[in-house]
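stuck on this chain:
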Amino acid sequence: MGSVTTGTPNYTVFEEICADFLAQRKAEAQARDKLLGMAWVLRVLLKTKFGRVPKWAEARIKTASRLQLKRWALRVYTEEKLEDVIPRT
């Protein structure tokens, strides 16, 4: 009889794929959390200076990029009206 070689499966490739997947998800979650944090800070600044944040401004904040949120947050200190911080369109 011939011998059949059996060995333990090599999970190295599978483990690498899983590690890459988890690293990517972690990076995505960190980026999302940073964006949410920046949006929260902007809302606090707006509420402190202007009072209630209108729905149109909330909608703009929800779709803004990180750079745009930063620009708007800095404008809170120099502008007198909310519409000058976050233009309606």
In short: The CA atoms of residues 39 and 62 lie 7 Å apart. The chain is about 70% helix and 0% strand.
